[in-house]
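Work Package 3 (structural annotation) set out to generate three-dimensional models for the target panel prioritized at the project kickoff. During this period the team completed the workflow that converts sequence records into discrete structure tokens, so that structures can be stored uniformly alongside our sequence database. As a representative example, we reproduce one entry of 130 residues exactly as it appears in the project archive.
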Amino acid sequence: TVLLLSQTATTLEDVLELEPHDVARELVSTLGRPLVAVTMGVTETKLVAQWEKAEKTPRDDRTRAMRVALQLTIVLKPRYSPRAIQSWFVGLNRHLNDNAPSEVLARLANAPDHDTERKLLNAARAFANR
């Protein structure tokens, strides 16, 4: 099943079918450009805007980390507002050795690691289910 541009990802699996610019657009709609930039380990919000507009494509490692970040927002959205989700992304998290999810994702954008991806998802689930 291919998602249309106007559709949003509602399951973790949906995220895998989105084009990178759609992933960026959905992330920005929840987190805002500055937090997406921090989360992806880039210093320019202009670059995030270029990803959204499909003017540039993030490299594969960063696209993968963006997909993980979007999956985290999908886990949290049913229970929390965008502001609360933003706070979760920047707050220290005991499930991540007292690192903020945004910091962990920034490292993941430069060095993919399945274990870290699982830890992030488990941290989001723990927060969503508390």
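The two ends are 33 Å apart (CA to CA).
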